[in-house]
Specification:
The chain is of the alpha/beta class and 141 residues long. The chain is 43% helix and 18% strand. The protein has 4 helices and 7 strands; from the N terminus they run ααββββαβαββ. The strands form 2 sheets. A 5-stranded mixed sheet has the order 4-3-2-5-6, with helices on one face. The longest helix is centred in the first third of the chain and has 22 residues, at 20-41.
């Protein structure tokens, strides 16, 4: 009985084919997962930026401070209750980020004075570089 099983094994030819269907299925599943999660990775507060002529932001360095439509201020995704709390939290976030550069994302519907108040507060906190973030306007118009 033992010799009979050996003969069957010896008669079998090795099969070196790779089933690509499973590999393609896996690649498509990973692609779909990345397509769904990529917009979520941007994070931040949903702010409707003003559309003006300009070039897109290329630097991904720096801390993002958002001024929402209701005038509330966020450091990253953390809401500051008032300007005093913002002033106390900001140095901690700047040290954690390892930068002295801040980008202000102000909603287009928030009063301009509120964005300038945050800008002034950042300058009083001795932030080295403060930038305003815009949504670049299409050049076709």
């Amino acid at each position: 009985m033992l010799t009979r099983n050996r003969k069957r094994r010896e008669q079998l030819n090795p099969n070196a084919d790779i089933n690509l269907i499973n590999l393609v299925d896996l690649a498509f599943v990973l692609l779909i997962i990345f397509m769904i999660t990529a917009p979520m990775l941007q994070g931040g507060i949903d702010v409707q930026l003003p559309k003006v002529g300009g070039s897109p932001m290329t630097a991904d360095q720096g801390l993002i401070v958002s001024v929402a439509r209701d005038g509330s201020v966020y450091i990253g995704e953390v809401k500051a209750a008032n300007d005093q709390e913002f002033a106390s939290l900001l140095p901690t976030y700047l040290r954690a980020q390892g930068t002295r550069e801040v980008y202000i994302k102000g909603d287009q519907n928030v009063p301009y004075g509120r964005v300038l108040a945050v800008f002034d507060l950042l300058k009083r906190l001795d932030v080295a570089d403060v930038n305003l973030v815009i949504d670049p306007q299409d050049e076709a118009r």
